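Assemble and predict.
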Amino acid sequence: GESVGLHLPTLSVQEGDNSIINCAYSNSASDYFIWYKQESGKGPQFIIDIRSNMDKRQGQRVTVLLNKTVKHLSLQIAATQPGDSAVYFCAENPPFRSNYQLIWGAGTKLIIKP
Amino acid sequence: NAGVTQTPKFRVLKTGQSMTLLCAQDMNHEYMYWYRQDPGMGLRLIHYSVGEGTTAKGEVPDGYNVSRLKKQNFLLGLESAAPSQTSVYFCASSLLGTNPHFGAGTRLSVL
């Protein structure tokens, strides 16, 4: 989930299909992970979080999967809607930082095709 | 219930000028954070606070100062603005550190 530069990865999905947004995190000992959605011109908005003692967590239309073996986090959005268009960020809480100083990924832009 | 409120929303400064960004939260949260967001990059932590009267440095603290005199307010100061500080600044607050709530951001341009 480290910053990777100026060009955001983009995912285009047909309206009504499921979306899967992926995130590779950096520290195998990170104990807390979180997904945020940021619409254009707005602040990030919390979607869902998961602790390292879980593999899966579900919310309303969203599921987060955690694969600690390969340090991979994914966000699944069911039945994608136009309102889901946004940039999605993952973040991790590494053990070498106190007080939830999260490390944020660069983000993935989700585009919904009508 | 306003959540996290940032003022101002936009500001243009000349190099060398100073300014203060204000963040206010009405959720009685202990933790408050200041981040900057640059194009194509994730959020980077500038400073944070774990309670009234406390502050600590984050990843990119140079050129910024903060104060948390009241629990509900977290101020970010730029003493001598530089063009490299052109960015969007976000304040966030959290009860115990998880699931931070973000403000709408302050867009700052330094000419």
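The radius of gyration of chain A is 14 Å.
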